[in-house]
Amino acid sequence: MTFIIAGFYYIAFIIFVGGVLLKIKQYWTTPAPIKIPTTPAPTTRLGVLYRMGKEIIVFESLFKSNKWIWIFGWLFHFGMFAVLFRHLRYFLDPVPVIVVMMQPLKYAAFAMLIGLSGLLFRRIFVARIRYISDPSDILMLILMLGIGISGTMMTFFGNVDIVATKSFFIGILTFNFQPFPTHPMLLIHLILVAVLMLIFPFSKLLHAPGIFFSPTRNQVDNAREKRHIAPWAAKLDKTRSV
Amino acid sequence: MADFDIPAYRTIKIIPKPVEGTMAHVKPYFAKPEHQEALGFPGEKPENWKQIAIDKLGEIVKKYKSVALFMDICVKCGSCTDKCHYYIGTSDAKNMPVARQDLLRKVYRRYFTFAGKYFPWLVGAVDLTEEIIDEWYVYYHQCSQCRRCSVFCPYGIDTAEISMAAREILDAIGIGQKYCNEILGKAQKIGNNLGLPGPALENTLEGLEEDIEDETGVVVKMPLDVKGADILLVTPSADFFAEPHIDGLIGYAKVFHAAGASWTMSTYASEAGNFGMFIGNYANTQKLTMRIRKAALDLGVKRLVFGECGHAWRVAYSFMNTMAGPFDFLDPKYPVPEHICEYTNNLIEAGKLNLDPSLNDDMVLTFHDSCNIARGSRMGKKAGGQFEIPRAVIKAVCNNYVDMPHDTIKEVTFCCGGGGGLLTDDIMEVRVKGALPRMEALDEVTREHGVTHMAAICAICKSQFTKVIPYYGFSMDQIVSIHQLVSNAIILDGQQTESTTEPDKKSAD
Ligand code: SF4
Ligand code: SF4
User: Fold this and answer.
1) Are the beta carbons of B430 and B383 closer than 8 angstroms?
2) CB contact under 8 A, A40 and B383
C-alpha cells in the first residue's frame, strides 16, 4: 500500500510540475504581436501590477459582472488557499509558528465547500451556465467537493493518525518511506488530490498560471509611445516598401 | 418594415433564456473568388480544406498569445454569458460569448489537446466538419468584436480575438465574407473603402467648401494632397458622403480653419478605417496602414490626425505604430496619431475657438461611446481619456447633455450592433436585434430627460444607427456627429451669424 500510494504520488507530481512548466513555457514564449489591453488600461508597469493584483486578489472583473459567481468563486478559492496554507503542518517539521497560529483557518474548509456547492448549483440550474458546461466542468467541481468533504471529515470528525500521516509524507519527500496509515477517508482524500494533480496541466485548471499571461490584462497601454513587434511580424516588416 | 420581429424593449432588464439556433439562418454573402484572391486568400474551398484549416489554427495558436491562452483557460464560469448585445437581442445560445468561443475551442481541443484527443466526450471536443465550418461562418459573423465580454471575464478573455482568428481560418480555406473582403480590396487598391477615385473626392470637397461659404460667408478650405502641409487628416471615407458623417467633416474643416492650421487630406490614404482588423489578418492590416505612412512621407507632413471613427481609431492608436512605425519623421511634440477630438479639445482648453453653445439649444444630447474607442484605445494622457475628452467637447458646444444609464456607457458601453464587419444589409436582422440594448438606453433617457439627439463618434456607429433607429421608432436625423455639433456652435472670424445671443456664453457648461 505504502509503495502504491507513494508511487502514484511521484507520478502525479512529475506530470503536474512537468506539464504546468511546459504550459508556462508555451504561454511565456508565444508572442503577442499587437497591443490589445482592454482599455481603460494602466499606462505604467506599476499600474499593471495594481490591475493584476486586484484581478487576482478580489476578482475585480467577476465582481463587476455577477455577484453570485463572484461570491461563490471567491469563497471557494480563498477558502482553498487558507486550507492549503494550513496543510503545511503536515509537511514541515517543526511546524512554523505562523502555521500553528493560523490553526483556526481550519474553518476555511467550510467557505471552500459553500463556494463549490454554490458553483455546482449554478452550473446545474442556471440555464446559460448549464448550456456552456461540458461533463468535465461538472466532474471537476465534484472532484474538488470530494477532496474538500473528505478532508473536512478527517479534520472535524476523524480519528486519523496525524503523526503517522505526517511521517508518511515526510518519508515521501525524503525518500525514507514510512508505512501508510490506512484509513478510508485519508485514502479517498489522497487519491482525489493526486487525480487533481494529474489532470491539472490538461484542463481548464491552467487558468491559475494562465491569468498572469493574459495580454488583455497584463499589457501597458503605451501603443503610441512604444512599438511592439513580435519576431514573426518583424519579418513582415522587412518587406515594407517605406 | 422587416421580415423578422423587432425585439421588444425589456421593461425590467431580464436576461433572456438561451434558445438554440434562433439566428442560425442569418449569414452574410460569401466573398467572390476575385475578392478573396486580391487579399492573398484562395478563391474557392480547396480539396484538402480540413487540413488547411487545422494547420491554420495551429499556426495562429503559435503566433498569438491571446488565442493560445484563451483556448486553454476559460473556466466556463458563465460571467460573460449575458454581456453580449447579440445574445440580449436574439437569445441565441451561441451568441453567448463563451459559447461563441467554444465553437472554435471544441475543434482546438480535438486536434491540439491531450484531453480532446483521448477523451473528447468529456471536454466537448468534436471533429472538424462542414457543419462546424457553417456554424463558424454564421456565428463569427454575429460578433462585432466589441470586447464587452472581455471586460467581465476574470481572465480578460476577449471573444473578438477568437472571432478574428476564426475569420482568418475561414479566409484561408476560401470562405470569406463579401462585405469585408471586397471593401478591404478596394481600400488597398484605390485608397478608400468606397473606391472613390481622386477626382471624385476633389469634387465632393469643392462642393463642401461652397456649402460652407454659402452658410457662413467664410471661405473654409478642404485641402487635398497639399505637399508641405503641417497636418495630414485621415478620416473614414463615409465622411465624404454619408449623413451625418459629412457634417462632422465640415466641423473638422472649420476647427482647422479657426486654428489657422495648415492641413491636408490625401487621396492615396483617403481611408482611416481598416477592415484588415475585422478579418484578423495582420499582413492585410499592415498593408493598408502602410498607405498612411507613405502618404505622410510623400506629403512631408508633421502631424497625423484621425477623424471620427471607432475601429479606425483602434487600429490607428493601438496598431499603427507597431505595424507602420516608427513615425520619427513627424514632429515629436505631438502624439502619433492624434484623434480629432484630442485636437479640438486642446484648442477649446486653450480658448482658441469661438464657440456659442446656445446654437445647439434646440437639442438635448446624449453620447454613444463606441466600443473600439472605449475598450480598444485611449485619448489624451490619462486612462479613460477616451470617455472624458469627447464629453468635454460636446459640453463645450452644447448646453444640454445627459449620459445614458451608467451600465451602458464608457467601459461597459454596448456596441451599436453594426461593428466588426457586420455593417451590411444582408444581415440586417443581426444588426437590428443587436442594437436592442443601446436602443433601450436611448429610450430611457428620451423618456426621462427629454433627450432628442445622440452623438456618435464612429463612422460605423453613425451608419448603423441611422439605418436601424427607425425600427425602434426614432428618426434617423436624431444621430449626429460630434464635430457636427462643433460645426453648429463655432463662430469663425468674419462669419455672418443669425444668432442673437452673445458669443461669450461658452462658459455655460
Ligand atoms: S466581442 Fe462583443 S459581439 Fe463579440 S461576443 Fe463579445 S460582446 Fe459579443
Ligand atoms: S467569463 Fe471568461 S472564463 Fe468565464 S465563461 Fe466567459 S470566457 Fe470563460
Assistant:
1) no
2) yes
Residue of B66, B81, B146 to test ligand 1 pocket, by largest number of atoms within 8 Å of CB: B146
Give the tens place of pLDDT for each residue, B71-120: 999 999 999 999 999 999 999 999 999 999 999 999 999 999 999 999 99
Nearest residue in B to A57, CA atom? B154
Q: How far apart are CA B296 and CA B315, in angstroms?
A: 17
Give the ligand 1 atom nearest the CA of B86: 8
Amino acid at B60: I
pLDDT tens for A150-166 read 999 998 887 788 889 89
The residue contributing the CA closest to ligand 2 atom 1 is: B153
Chain A residues whose CB is inside 8 A of the B384 CB are 40
CA nearest neighbour of B314 among B347, B276, B343: B276
CB atoms closer than 10 angstroms to residue A56: 15
Instruction: State the span(s) of chain B assigned CATH 1.10.1060.
Output: 33-176
Q: How far apart are alpha carbons B413 and B373 in whole angstroms? A: 10
Q: Determine the residue of B145, B151, B152, B278 to mutate for testing ligand 1's pocket, defined as the one with the most ligand atoms within 8 A of the Cβ atom.
A: B145
Instruction: Give, in order, the Cα–Cα distances in Å from B112 to each of B61, B74, B106, B107, B129.
Output: 10, 16, 10, 8, 16
Of all protein residues, the one whose alpha carbon is nearest to atom 2 of ligand 2 is B153
Is B384 touching A (CB cutoff 8 A)?
yes
Give Cβ neighbours of residue A155 (< 8 Å, ≥ 6 apart).
A106, A109
Each residue's pLDDT tens digit, A94-153: 888 988 888 888 899 999 999 999 999 999 999 999 999 999 999 999 999 999 999 999
Q: In 3D, which of A228, A54, A33, A223 has the Cα closest to residue B378?
A: A223
Choose among B22, B175, B182: nearest CA to B89: B22
Cell matching residue A16: 503536474
Chain segment B362-421, per-residue pLDDT in tens: 999 999 999 999 999 999 999 999 999 999 999 999 999 999 999 999 999 999 999 999
Residues of B in contact with A233 (CB under 8 A): 282, 286, 322-323
Map residue B30 onto helix, strand or coil: strand
Among chain B residues, CA nearest to A63: B152
Q: Are B170 and B140 in contact (CB under 8 A)?
A: yes
Nearest by CB to residue B18, choosing from A131, A202, A210, is A131
pLDDT recorded at residue B112: 98
Name the pTM for this structure: 0.94
**Cα(A102)–Cα(A86) distance, integer angstroms:** 7
CA distance A224 to chain B (A): 6
**Alpha-carbon span B56 to B51, nearest angstrom:** 8
Instruction: Give residue B509's pLDDT.
Output: 43
Q: What residues of chain A lie within 8 A of the CB of B83, using their CB?
A: 65
pLDDT reading at A241 higher than 80: no
CB within 8 Å: B297 and A242: yes
Kindly tell me if the per-residue pLDDT of A168 is higher than 50: yes
With the most atoms of ligand 1 within 8 angstroms of its CB, the residue from B415, B422, B427, B460 to mutate is B415
**Alpha carbon of residue B383 to chain centroid:** 20
Report residues whose beta carbon is within 6 angstroms of any ligand 2 atom.
B 74-80, 97-98, 153-155, 157
Statement: B33-176 belongs to CATH 1.10.1060: yes
